[in-house]
UniProtKB/TrEMBL annotation:
MF GO annotations: GTP binding; GTPase activity
Keyword annotations of the record: GTP-binding, Nucleotide-binding
Top-level taxon: Eukaryota
Residues engaged in binding GTP: 53-56
Organism of derivation: Pan troglodytes
Keyword GTP-binding assigned: yes
Signal peptide positions on this chain: none
Record protein name field: ARL16 isoform 10
Pfam families per the UniProt record, alphabetical: Arf
Keyword Nucleotide-binding attached: yes
Lineage of origin: Eukaryota, Metazoa, Chordata, Craniata, Vertebrata
SUPFAM superfamilies in alphabetical order: P-loop containing nucleoside triphosphate hydrolases
Amino acid sequence: MGPIWSSYYGNCRSLLFVMDASDPTQLSASCVQLLGLLSAEQLAEASVLILFNKIDLPCYMSTEEMKSLIRLPDIIACAKQNITTAEISAREGTGLAGVLAWLQATHRAND
């Protein structure tokens, strides 16, 4: 679906980007997609929440491991957007209340 994402960028104030914390083989591909989104001019002012999903699985990578592997501090230093991260388990609902709170706070700040 990545190739058609740009048709949805208009009026985007918040971006949720989900990364699979249980699959290190997809991490580099996810990082490339994230960098593509962050470089899109239409998303320059969007707030970004990177969600590390599947923390309920026994083989998941910690947030610190993932941040290190994708060099997140370097990405944040170069990005125009405000970037936040969170760990979630969509299956169990862990962390989803925090995602909703982030969305509400982000939209209140942008109004």
